[in-house]
Every structure is written in C-alpha cells, then in structure tokens.
Write a structure and sequence with these properties.
The chain has 253 residues and is mainly β. It has one domain: monomeric porin ompg (Porin). 7% of the residues lie in helices and 53% in strands. Strands 2-3-4-7-8-9-10-11-12-13-14-15 form a twelve-stranded antiparallel β-barrel. It is globular and about 45 Å long. The N terminus is likely disordered.
Length: 253
C-alpha cells in the first residue's frame, strides 16, 4: 500500500495560489492521531513504503504505524505535508489512510486516500515475494474529479542486506495527470548497519509522481524512524521540479 498518490510532492503543474487553511491542517493531524489511538498500542517490523513507492513490507496484524511526510522546494520555498496512518489487519494485508495536498504557503486539491496492500505470495527461504495494492482518491477541496484510483503490482527480491523491487502501476485520469497514466515503479534498499539504510526509488513517466528519490533511512530508536531524500523529477528539472523530502515515522505498538 502506498502512503499517498504517490509522491509526497503536490501536482507540480497545477499549484494554485490559495492560502493554506492552517486550522484544517491542525484538524487533520489530530484526526490521524485519533485513528492511531483507536487501534491501540504493541513493534512494527518495517515501513510500508521506501520513501514514496510501496515496499514489500506488510505490518503484522494489530500493528499501527504513523508517519508525517514533507517536501521543501528550494527554488520556490514551497512546502508540502502528508500525514498518514497504517494498520496491519492480517498476516499479509494492511490498510491505511493518507491526507494528500496539504501545503504552504499555497494549497491545491486536498485529497483523502484510503489504501490497501496485500502480499499474495512470499518465499522467505529464497527471498522472493509478490504484492499488490490499491489506493482510492477522494478530493475534498477543489474537486476536479469525484473518485480516483492508483493500482499496482510488484515483485521483490531480498538478499542478506539488499532488497530490490520492480513493478507496474496505473493511475486513473486527473490523479497524477490529466489522462490515465501507466508505468513502472522500482525500489532499491541497501542496509549499511543495524540502524542505517541507503535507499532509492523511481516512478517512471512525466506525471506528478514521476521522480527519482535517493537518500537515507535512519532507525533512531525501536519506534522512531527518520527519512531524508532528494527528489529529482523526470521532467522540468531546469524549471525547479526537484526538492528535499523528509519523513518521520513512528511505530505505536
């Protein structure tokens, strides 16, 4: 399952000069914490995305993971924020809820996004797995469509300290581009130590999620994980389509 439709960055082509409703941001953050509290508290094995691209990880049943993602664009001082929560509901299935589109000093669409990821096949002895996911998209502000969808499927291969994945995705129209878009999604993770991982990922295509993200994942404590990466767009890089990405993840139980 993916944490948002699928870059933490906003639609690069369609940013609108509206003022950020700070009260709405506060309400959404409180709502995300409320969802976490309702599911109670126990240690999550891993994050369910690398940075933006869904990983092969699935939360164990009853486990809860919360995260706040953000981007900072150096050329325009534009910032985005994506709170989300993920819950393991069975051995191979997890559900989540993202709030996409929060930004400052302007805001475009605000989108509520329930998500699901299902690991259909897993062979831990040789490190292979296959997983699928689906994210719905419900605009609640500046609605240009009623419901959108992002569906994907991917294979993953795990070695001792290295994991890669390769898959395909499809977005319905208006979610990341004006028309329907399909392409590939890829991840790479190299564990450098028990607390530090080098990672990279890529969504193909000239869309709002079309970025190469490279950076580090730092396991600060048993429950707290920090992410830092730089996003470089597949198009319009010379026009400023690149930005810093940061994430703070917390295992609630």
């Amino acid at each position: 399952m993916s944490r948002s439709f699928r870059s933490s960055s906003p639609p690069f082509q369609n940013r609108r000069p509206d003022k950020l409703p700070l009260r709405l941001l506060t309400y959404l953050l409180k709502f995300s914490l409320l969802l976490v509290t309702l599911f109670g508290a126990r240690t999550v094995r891993a994050q369910e995305t690398v940075f933006d691209v869904p990983s092969a990880d699935i939360l164990d049943k009853g486990k809860v993971y919360g995260e706040l993602d953000g981007t900072a664009q150096p050329t325009t001082a534009f910032f985005t924020y994506t709170p989300r929560v993920v819950v393991g509901i069975s051995h191979n299935v997890e559900l989540g809820l993202n709030f996409n589109g929060l930004s400052s000093p302007t805001i475009g669409q605000l989108v509520a996004s329930p998500t699901v990821k299902w690991r259909l096949w897993n062979r831990p002895n040789d490190g292979w797995s296959f997983y699928v996911g689906d994210d719905l998209s419900f605009p609640v502000r500046e609605r240009t469509y009623s419901v959108g969808n992002y569906i994907y499927a991917a294979f993953a291969k795990q070695w001792k300290h290295t994991r890669i994945s390769a898959g395909a995705y499809d977005y319905t129209q208006h979610v990341v581009a004006q028309a329907n878009r399909a392409g590939g999604q890829f991840t790479f993770e190299q564990q450098l130590s028990s607390y530090l991982t080098l990672a990279a990922e890529w969504y193909t295509g000239n869309t709002d999620v079309g970025y190469v993200n490279s950076g580090l994942i730092y396991k600060a404590t048993q429950k707290l994980t920090l992410y830092a990466a730089y996003q470089v767009g597949n198009a319009n890089v010379s026009k400023g389509n690149h930005q810093f990405l940061w994430e703070i993840g917390y295992n609630f139980n």
